[in-house]
Amino acid sequence: MEQFAAIDLGSNSFHLVVAREEEHALTVIDRERDMVRLAAGLDGKNLLTPEASERALECLARFGQRLRGLEPENVRIVGTNALRKANNSREFIARAEQALGFSIEIISGVEEARLVYLGAAQTLQGDRGRRMVVDIGGGSTEIIVGDKSDAVYLKSLYMGCVSSSERFFPGGEYDQFRMRSAILSAQLELESSTVVLQSLAAEDFVGTSGTARAINNVLRENGWSETGITREGLDKLVKKIIKAGKLEKLKISGLSEERRPVFAGGVAVMTAIFNALEIEFMRISDGSLREGVLHDLIGRVLYEDRRAITVLELMKRHHIDLEQGQRVRETTLALFKQVKREGLLKRERRLLGWAAQLHEIGLMIAHNQHHQHGGYVLANMDLPGFSRQEQGALSIMVRLQRRKYHPELIEDSAYVRSDALGLMTRLLRLAVLFNRGRMPIEMPDIQLEIEASEAMVLKISENWLVNHPLTAADLDQEVGTLAAAGHELRIVKT
What is the pLDDT of residues 376-416, one digit of tens each? Predict the structure, then answer.
């Protein structure tokens, strides 16, 4: 039986879960957690401090040992709000991938919300009607409304237990004014979404992840709730924190030492959610982001890839020419096959294929500069299933499919494997060029090689070029365009 693993690089904690798939069901066989507090390691310039980076890397080295022997396709590692905010996240990710031996994805807040809901939905028993799932993390809070396994509304808010604790309870000082300010600030963050969330009429309220579970444990241990989180129990907890006055005096049964420094901020955010959305009771789910990542990963490998569904939905919604997209995709992947030994990965083949299918998405705005329109659209819309790096790579490939080639866009992107992204982009340019006629043609026997000097050599039939003078002219122009950007393309006629 195959093993699958997911790692959630949260703003407060890092989580590892390993499972095996048995007859369409997951059996968890190992878990590991470490309170890294990555968000607390961001300085005033939103740079991860060396101390925070080292804490994280030590944890990931331990996780990496557990992952040894697993197939790369069976492992997915996602970073959330702290890594979204960190201005030096690219440097950290390069070191972290070396420690782990696997690639890391930074996901958007909306994608995080989708995966949180997926993880919670897999573990909830019984249908109690439309549900609202709340996940209070270290730096962000995700609120999702859905019916059974399908999310209908996803929201990611910039508030969490770490950020709230640092802002309103610095030095571990508690009083009524600080707590009231923390709650009101969270309610203000919620304000723009409150009407929509209330209109969705959720009947079942579910809390997931560390903050909700910690609050639930404390309420139960102190006899303030038999199960779940209640409004009355939250009120008693708020009074208990205020009465403690200081972090060192915050001794509450059921509250772990590692959770204690960020507990007040989490309670403030949860209280604000209860107040704004008029919640009386919230049950707790065992499933969260990491379980959602795991289910999504297994879907990619064994069943249905959410990213492929997203691409098809985009093509239909924006009336992209399906046949042209397929022609460019086939040509691109044929070229990819010839140069894959240059270090390109299996996952990059899929990414390149999706870029080919979406390369004309900018036509929905205008034909003039449609490559620029397409790049902008793909960079800024929500793409369920895609990480930020993948989305950025799609955007850049579509943006650079024609006209001037800008290598600086590739070098400055969040995609760590910039050399691979550059090569994929040049392959797409060639495929678009060959399919300019927008109709089925008999493609020539093309041989594509990459020399040690990184020059790209394209061997093609001279007779075919004579019969396709427009393509021959386009190829000559492409040689000059790439040369101006520092890349050599040679056309060898056979």
Answer: 999 999 999 999 999 999 999 999 999 999 999 999 998 88
Q: What domain range includes position 70? A: 3-107+292-298
Look at residues 298, 331, 350 and tell me which one is the last residue of a structural domain. Answer: 298
Other Cβ atoms closer than 10 A to 484: 10
* Measured CA distances, 383 to 44, 143, 388, 391 (Å): 31, 18, 9, 7
Under the phi-then-psi rule, with left for phi > 0, alpha for psi from -120 to 50, and beta for the rest, what region is 314?
Answer: alpha
Instruction: Note if the pTM is more than 0.85.
Output: yes
Measured between alpha carbons, how far is 59 from 64 in angstroms, rounded to an integer? 9
The C-alpha atoms of residue 146 and residue 302 are separated, in whole angstroms, by 25
**Contact assessment for residue 60 and residue 5, using Cβ atoms and an 8 Å cutoff:** no
Number of structural domains in the chain: 3
Question: What's 30's domain CATH number?
Answer: 3.30.420.40
Distance CA 246, CA 173 (A): 5
How many distinct helices (H) and strands (E) make up the chain?
19, 14
Number of other residues whose CB lies within 10 A of the CB of residue 23: 5
Read off the CATH number of the domain in which 423 is found: 1.10.3210.10
The whole-angstrom separation of Cα 54 and Cα 26 is 33
Quote the CA–CA distance of 181 and 170 in Å, as a whole number: 13
